[in-house]
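Quick one, tokens below:
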């Protein structure tokens, strides 16, 4: 691919030719990516223009962009916190397997007038009351085991959510990176078009001076060059927007602007058939597994609801003491005792509340099953769409590269004929436009292939090992 090999050189010289990033200090990438992190305070927001002024431009690779995004992504950070919260919930549920210990201590003082005639005889009495009770739910109607299992499934659900958001983050970063490469390519193509139209204008002016051309040819060449400059201005604007989009996706600091360091090349080959890809997606996608886990959670919720009308058996052991101190010694004393026992509670009728709540959870399980089937069909469509688009773009790469070679040669011949006075400027202009279009189609085929490959990788997910999170 001769044109493909020469295109990175065109992109590398672009910044020097355009000159609109001269005030920005470009820096080389180092191993430490921490300086891309945003402010540690999530509630901080700039209040001065200096705080949002771009003072450094950083060229990064796709792998570095993914690494930064996985560290900075707010949704992913929130998902990890939800996972930690679910782990705390499991510990809380497991606490029901252990006995409870309750203690109480009370102190009170009483005074009483003991004189029959209402004299000054007043007796004081102080009393200490205390107790300690150990309790254990021997049988809870299935509520305890269902609560623990529900907590375990919630942990698994949140692990899958971390996985889902991680895959989505990789997809969004890769897509934004390819879009920035696309905008860079459009700027380069517009720059090359300006050079071609500038050459045409110089040729037209020379022919006019030699009496072989007309003023109309010069004016037409000036119009075409002005249009090319306008196209470059629009391309630069789109490039700047793509850079800011990538910075937003990566959640970098307010003063950083990112550029693409990778060359525009094909990013790998898909080694699987369409049918294998669909089956892999059904196996690998966290979204499908989450719906199955959600169904299991609702199943445990149903058990918890129904446990309210099942027998509840508890054991208890208690120790109590009483200490009394009065004005008279014969009223001072201490007493203690213990009690052991078991309690049985069985709510025979609750007005149908438990059964109704259990039925609600059954409906939720049916909804999960319906959503599973719907999500499965969507995933298949995603795989098929990405696969077919990738195949089409793969075929277009070869044909569009040949078109670039042909259009380049056509422009060379048209210009030679025009310079020799045997061709027309219209032929040159048409050849230039054909070359610009061919260049755009060629780059679109490569970037389109990479984007569809990215979509296919996201649709299948968990490559290359294809393993979901394992519950430990």
């Amino acid at each position: 691919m001769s044109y493909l090999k020469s295109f990175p050189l065109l992109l590398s010289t672009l910044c020097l030719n355009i000159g609109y990033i001269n005030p920005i200090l470009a820096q080389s990438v180092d191993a430490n990516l921490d300086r891309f992190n945003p402010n540690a305070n999530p509630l901080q927001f700039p209040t001065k223009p200096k705080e949002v002024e771009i003072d450094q431009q950083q060229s990064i690779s796709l792998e570095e962009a993914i690494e930064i995004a996985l560290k900075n992504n707010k949704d992913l950070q929130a998902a990890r916190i939800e996972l930690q919260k679910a782990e705390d919930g499991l510990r809380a549920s497991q606490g029901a397997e252990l006995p409870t210990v309750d203690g109480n201590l009370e102190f009170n003082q009483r005074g009483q007038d003991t004189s029959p005639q209402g004299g000054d005889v007043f007796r004081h009495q102080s009393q200490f009351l205390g107790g300690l009770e150990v309790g254990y739910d021997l049988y809870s109607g299935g509520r305890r085991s269902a609560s623990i299992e529900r907590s375990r499934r919630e942990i698994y659900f949140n692990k899958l959510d971390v996985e889902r958001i991680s895959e989505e983050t990789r997809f969004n970063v890769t897509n934004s990176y390819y879009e920035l490469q696309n905008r860079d390519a459009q700027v380069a193509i517009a720059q090359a078009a300006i050079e071609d139209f500038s050459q045409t204008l110089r040729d037209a002016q020379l022919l006019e001076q030699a009496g072989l051309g007309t003023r109309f040819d010069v004016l037409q060449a000036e119009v075409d060059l002005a249009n090319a400059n306008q196209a470059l201005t629009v391309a630069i604007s789109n490039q700047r927007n793509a850079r800011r989009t990538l910075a937003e996706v990566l959640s970098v600091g307010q003063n950083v602007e990112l550029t693409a360091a990778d060359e525009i090349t094909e990013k790998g080959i898909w080694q699987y058939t369409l049918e294998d890809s669909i089956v892999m997606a059904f196996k690998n996608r966290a979204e499908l597994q989450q719906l199955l886990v959600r169904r299991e959670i609702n199943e445990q919720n149903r058990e918890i609801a129904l446990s309210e009308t099942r027998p509840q058996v508890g054991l208890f052991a208690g120790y109590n003491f009483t200490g009394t101190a009065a004005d008279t010694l014969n009223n001072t004393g201490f007493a203690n005792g213990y009690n052991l026992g078991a309690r049985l509670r069985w709510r025979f009728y609750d007005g149908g509340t438990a059964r109704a709540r259990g039925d609600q959870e059954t409906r939720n399980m049916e909804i999960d099953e319906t959503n599973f089937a719907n999500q499965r069909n969507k995933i298949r469509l995603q795989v098929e769409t990405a696969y077919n688009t990738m195949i089409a773009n793969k075929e277009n790469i070869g044909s569009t590269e040949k078109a670039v070679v042909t259009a380049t040669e056509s422009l060379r011949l048209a210009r030679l004929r025009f310079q020799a006075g045997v061709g027309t400027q219209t032929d040159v202009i048409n050849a230039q436009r054909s070359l610009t279009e061919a260049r755009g189609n060629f780059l679109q085929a490569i970037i389109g292939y990479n984007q569809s490959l990215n979509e296919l990788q996201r649709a299948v997910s968990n490559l290359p090992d294809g393993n979901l999170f394992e519950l430990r």
